[in-house]
Amino acid sequence: MKFVSILCATSLTLFPLLQNTPPIYSNLPLELMGIVRNVGSPARSVCLIRFALPPNNVETLRSGEKAFELAEVQNIDTDGVVIRNLVSEGLEYLTFSKNRPSPIQPSPIPAVPQVTAISPDRIDINISTDVFEHYAKNLPEILDSAFAAPHFRKDKDGKQSIEGFEISRIKEAGIADRMKLQNGDIILAVNGEPLDSLATVMRLLGKIQNMAEGKMSVLRGGRKLDFVFKRK
After folding, report:
1. pTM of the model
2. Residue 69 scores a pLDDT above 70
3. DSSP code of 221?
4. What domains, with CATH codes, occur in the chain?
5. For strand 223-231 and strand 122-127, is the pairing parallel, antiparallel, or unpaired?
6. CA 128 to CA 144: how far, in whole Å?
7. 109, 47 in Cβ contact below 8 A?
8. For the chain, does the N or the C end have fewer beta carbons within 10 angstroms?
9. Three-class SS string for 151-188?
10. Cβ neighbours of residue 103 under 8 Å, at least 6 residues apart?
11. Alpha carbon separation from 48 to 59, 65, 119, 147 (Å, rounded)
């Protein structure tokens, strides 16, 4: 049985599942670390994928297996992996860092979210269609605007479960800062849907372009605060 270990790739080829379509490079927070390709039986090939946000866990996966509930491995080639994005349900490339095309500089944001009202329990924000479309096309900007770590609670049986995501390291002038989030805020839910996993967060981010309005429930200093967004 022959195996070929790939630690990094030096060329980029079209993978069989996507050879008739333009390449779509994944923006999910996943990083391809290595490939062990079984030449005699490709279905037994494995890939090493790292979750690119803390805690930076690494999983060894075969075709048909899920990576951090964000993607499903479809095909493992010598230069990269075809995945099914479980947020968008589309097929995408996951390649080695050196094989990724040079990132295109995002277009300037045409406007910023406008805070229209602030009260102790509610902040109203208007967001233009241009801004919605900008961030829908540049999701990494949202992920990079602040650090979000799971906030855990202990259940009655002593097990820990995720109860929202705590925000810290907010970048000045980033989207989190513009939306008036503060370090220490815990985002509990969006439109009533509890943020109980990263998969839920990514799925909601994938829906951002179609949202006419929304409500984000935040815990700040022990008090609940609602951010109400309207698309203008």
Report:
1. 0.63
2. yes
3. T
4. 3-99 (no CATH), 114-231 (2.30.42.10)
5. parallel
6. 21
7. no
8. N
9. EEEECCCCCEEEEEEEEECCCCCCHHHHCCCCCCCEEE
10. none
11. 6, 12, 48, 24
